[in-house]
Amino acid sequence: MGQLAVGIDSLALLLIAAGLIVGLGEALAPGAHLIVVGVALIGAGLVGLVLGPLASPLVLGALVVGFGGLAAYAYRELEITGGPLIDQTRNVDTLAGSVGRVTETVTPEQGQIRLEGGGLNPYYSARTVHGTIAEDTEVIVTDPGGGTVVTVEAVDGGYDAIDAALAEADVERA
């Protein structure tokens, strides 16, 4: 029976080590893709150490699945990525007509905005065709450009849903 306890302890330590390695991988290549797996492995390993001989490989496997489910639920509910995990990725076609706020004053040469539901990184470099748009002004994307630099217009600047639909139609035709 002593050998089985040593084997379970070793398996629990192996789970912890694997979780730490996965966590390190997440730190080196961030994007919150591996955090759920790392938390599941570390949690199951720690509980396995506490349970000692009661933690069979089957129990440890169930703990990994259980902790993985809890971590995935927490990850989703806490919105770690800055928003719901559904439809996070944005492409240039979906930017036309998007609404956001100016985070750095937008001019024809420079500026930055934060789009609502803008994906994992909702910040975009922005330009205006004419004039200057002050910080914290609500804007709408009139031309998605190449996706990294968008052209915007202040919402109170006369740009409305019809203009957004026309801009989207222009993108679809292009």
Task: Summarize this entry quickly.
The protein has 174 residues and is α+β, with helices and mostly antiparallel strands.
Beta content? 15-25%
The average pLDDT value, as a whole number, equals: 79
Determine the structural class based on helices, strands and strand pairing: alpha+beta
The H-and-E topology, N to C, reads as: HHHHEEEEEH
Question: How many helices?
Answer: 5
CATH domain topology of the largest domain: OB fold (Dihydrolipoamide Acetyltransferase, E2P)
Low-confidence stretches: 1-6, 83-89
CATH superfamily of the largest domain: Nucleic acid-binding proteins
Distance between the termini: 71 Å
- Main pleated-sheet profile: 5 strands, mixed, barrel
Q: Nearest-angstrom radius of gyration?
A: 24 Å
How many domains? 2
Overall number of strands: 5
Descriptive notes:
The protein has 174 residues and is α+β, with helices and mostly antiparallel strands. Helices cover 47% and strands 16% of the residues. The chain has five helices and five strands. It has helices at residues 2-28, 35-51, 57-77, 92-95, 161-173; strands at 99-104, 112-115, 123-127, 138-143, 149-154. The chain has a five-stranded mixed β-barrel with strand order 1-2-3-5-4. Strand 4 (138-143) and strand 5 (149-154) form a beta hairpin. The chain starts with a helix and ends with a helix.
